[in-house]
Amino acid sequence: MIERVGGAALRVYAAHRRRTLEGVARDAARVQEAALLDLVNAARGTAFGRSHRFEQIRSVADYQARTPVGDYLRFQPLWNRAINGERDLTWPGRPRYWVKTSGTTAGDKMIPVTSEAFRAHRKGGWDALLIAAERAGFEGVAGGPLLFLGGCTTLKPVGQGFWVGDLSGLMVQDLPPGFRSRYSPGRAIASIPEWDQRIDAVAELVARQDLRLISGMPSWLLILFERVARARRASGRPVSSLGECWENLGAIIHGGVSFAPYRATVEEWMGRSVEYVEVYPASEGFVGLQTERPASTRAPRRRLRGTRHSRPVLRTALVAVAYPDVVRSRRSRGGRP
Q1: What is the signed CA dihedral for 242, 248, 254, 260, rounded to 10 degrees?
Q2: What element of type H or E holds 184?
Q3: Which of 18, 117, 216, 307 is deepest in the core (most CB within 10 A)?
Q4: CA distance 271 to 212
Q5: Is the alpha carbon torsion for 100, 101, 106, 111 positive or negative?
Q6: What is the pLDDT of residue 303?
Q7: How many angstroms separate the CA atoms of 218 and 323, rounded?
Q8: SS3 221
Q9: φ and ψ at residue 105, rounded to 5 degrees
Q10: What's the pLDDT score for residue 8?
Q11: Is the dihedral of CA 19, 20, 25, 27 positive or negative?
């Protein structure tokens, strides 16, 4: 009885969150401008905010005029000072955690992850999970292990009492209580530093598990699927598809790269229909997630009225990099993390 009531409440909440995100997509410019101005207001007392006169910014145009586009090297001197213990440089306080990212410029980089960024990532991940469960069925998704295929969870000390690691590794440091018992592959395997050894250990484990949901980059998932199939053959339990291995798998959450080049192969590995939810997490912030079922690997195109041209119809509701309520909560607490 309690489980049924809880499931019903989650379904109502999931539908509410989906409608909220779809509303964001319909009014994206206003919502994102509000989020930007909240961020600017929160950072107006920092060294970066003071040097760019954040207190005078009232619009996107003001921000663009006062804050020229810059690359990582522009911020690196300030962040080096932050790692050495200085406060209030690009964001109020001192970020305890840093994420290592390769990105596309300047080689390997370290980016601060503030408490507000953590909350935005958690909220985005929770929204993606709710949408996946709403489509696949809450009872099924909640009935077994949930695989989150990410980077190494081991953190390394850096600077004056801070920690650096992979973003996905940072996020599993504080899993909600309801997910800790369902989190796969578990902290011991997820903390293996060598990637090839870690993916083999994950494959050996999940080949025996009744997975209900999988989350990860498509390119990593294909490597995992191949090794799971190998593990099943080695154990004398081969399967014709991974849909047979994970009979109750309901959804795959994917992101990091475009899914289009991978979808046909993923579907072939599955051998049956599952739900797909695309997310756009980045080291800099949780950017967006998909709220509608993808009809195909190619976005449908809609004819523009009165012309021969067409434009893609986007099927994704984008969430601002910082959830506005996450940023506003800082002001209600007095501005300190």
Answers
A1: 50
A2: strand 183-184
A3: 117
A4: 16
A5: negative
A6: 33
A7: 26
A8: helix
A9: -135, 155
A10: 77
A11: positive
Residue 19 pLDDT > 80: yes
pLDDT 10s digits, 22-59: 888 889 899 999 999 999 999 999 999 999 999 999 99
Is residue 169 a contact partner of residue 155, using CB atoms and an 8 Å limit?
Answer: yes
> Does 238 score more than 90 pLDDT?
yes
β-pairing, 301-303 with 310-312?
A: antiparallel
Q: How far is CA 240 from CA 47, 229, 246, 250, 270, in A?
A: 59, 9, 12, 18, 9
Give dist(CA 174, CA 155) in Å, integer: 13
Query: Which pTM does this prediction carry?
Result: 0.84
Q: What is the spatial distance between Cα 66 and Cα 320, in angstroms, rounded to a whole number?
A: 21
Break the chain into its structural domains and give their ranges: 116-153+172-332
H helix or E strand, kind and range, residue 253:
strand 251-255
- How far apart (Å, rounded) are the C-alpha atoms in residues 266 and 222? 7
